[in-house]
Amino acid sequence: MTEEVHDVRLQVNGATHAVTVPARRLLSDALRHDCGLTGTHVGCEHGVCGACTVLMDGRPVRSCLVLAVSAEDTEVTTVEGLAEDTGEDDTVLSPVQQAFSDCHGLQCGFCTPGFLTTITAGLRANPDPTEDEARDMIAGNLCRCTGYQNIVKAVLRAAELTREGR
Amino acid sequence: MKPAPFAYRRPETVEEALEALAREPGAKVLAGGQSLVPLLSMRLASPGTLVDVNRLPGLDQVTVSDDEVRVGALVRHADLLAHAPAGERQPLLAMALAHVAHATIRNRGTTVGSIVHADAAAEMPTVLALLGGSVEVASVRGRRTIAAADLFAGPLESTIAADELALSAGFPVLGPGEGVGFAEVARRHGDYALCGVAGLVRVEDDAVTEARLGYLSVADVPTVVDVTGCDPAEAAARALERIEPGDDIHASAAYRAQLVKVLTRRVLTAATDDARSRDARRTG
Predict the structure, then answer these.
(1) B216: which residues sit within 8 A by CB, 6+ positions away?
(2) Does residue B161 sit in the same domain as residue B85?
(3) B4/A139 CB distance under 8 A
(4) B180 near B92, Cβ under 8 Å?
(5) Under 8 Å CB-to-CB from A25, ≥6 apart: which residues?
(6) Distance (Å, whole) CA B10 – CA A156
(7) CATH code, B259
(8) What is each CA distance from B189 to A32, B117, B243, in whole angstroms?
(9) B168-208 pLDDT, tens per residue?
């Protein structure tokens, strides 16, 4: 029996990817294997760890809990889409990425893409979080290096950088 | 951990969705998918067809009337949580929704989907049961309303037929003299609760005339216990007559029973205080 496939147009980081996938293809796998965007990491694959978090229409969602075929007509932002394109050869790190670098919020780096997308949206909703609010913002993402202290610092630093217009 | 193959349908109208559900007896409805997709990935569920209802028009509305907060099938938890008029008319919604998973899951998961998934460890089925709400469902055979009391048949099992689609859920608003409370204990905020309790209390002339508590994560189905006339210790004893908490990797039965006692006291007190202060403001 051949499996039914679907032609899907995914809008990712401002580009259109026309892919042909079976209905069971998870968005996380479509991003990695069909679009070649391997920045999105796959951890637990049942919605617990948050490593695969991407933005769909600006809101963080677990890409392992969304079917690629049902992501059609949404705007997906992955970690690759966070850096600012300067139009030159270079890109500039976003405030959240810069803050992770400044505060050593990135340890082994596996969970980092999910944290970066989650915090990017979290700071849009709450640009000036307290430390408790910063912890709450990242509560759905697991870091197995237990780098939370530095990640919390990075949330607060990213808020500072954003306020400074960086 | 990948889902087994299935056929995928994405109808554009409710009628098309109902026809698809009628045609394919093994079909499952996909809305937010935050409970269903993990079950597919772990192959605990392998429906032949998924009917994706995310494109259906008109199901993403919250409407607040004098009697109820009506929540459409495509309203995400996060949007209901942020809906100020809904929260004002039935404050238990926001109290409980703040405990539904993590913000990222609430962005995609739907409140109606969580209810019809009928997980006794989830918050919103118990809230619907406690408030005495209902779910409106449709099929090619017609529409009907299922009262919460008739909805939850067993673990992850509702009385909604395989060819029926839940269109909305109705939560009664807070009545005069009524107050609410909610508390739960989880290993990590946003995880499934080890035990959760929702409370609804009515006072008249400062006297408690009605008190009910709803329990989650400690029984096979959302369980509502009438504790009118009970002090907190009696209320906990009455709840434990109805509920036999089980053991699992996260907590022993004895610990869960202890949580029932502690949370019963906490929620009964909080809901009574809430009812009294609302009543005092109302009667001025």
Answers:
(1) B120, B121, B122, B123, B125, B126, B184, B193, B195, B196, B197, B198, B222
(2) yes
(3) no
(4) yes
(5) A34, A67, A68, A69
(6) 42
(7) 3.30.390.50
(8) 30, 21, 24
(9) 999 999 999 999 999 999 988 788 899 999 999 999 998 99
On whether residue B284 sits in a domain, the answer given is no
> Measured between CB atoms, does B22 come within 8 Å of chain A?
no
Is B104 near chain A, with CB under 8 Å?
yes
Judge residue B115's burial from the number of C-beta atoms within 10 Å of its C-beta, 0-12 exposed, 13-18 middle, 19 or more buried. buried
Q: What CATH number does the domain containing B136 carry?
A: 3.30.465.10
Chain B residues whose beta carbon lies within 8 Å of the beta carbon of residue A65: 33-34, 37-38, 105, 108
Mean pLDDT by 10 residues, chain A (166 residues): 91 97 98 98 95 98 98 96 79 94 95 98 97 95 94 98 85
Structural domain that includes position A142: 84-165
Taking the C-alpha atoms of B175, B177, B178 and B183 in order, what is their torsion angle to the nearest 10 degrees?
Answer: 150
- Please determine, for residue B242, whether its predicted confidence score (pLDDT) is greater than 80: yes
Closest approach of chain A CAs to the CA of B147, in angstroms?
Answer: 30
Cβ pair B221, B120 in contact under 8 A? yes
Residues B94 and B80 in one domain: yes
pTM, full prediction: 0.95
Residues 1-20 of A with CB under 8 A from B: 3-4, 6
Interface contact B37, partner A, CB < 8 A: yes
Within an 8 Å CB–CB cutoff, is residue B3 touching chain A? yes
Q: Which residue of B has its CA nearest to A59?
A: B107
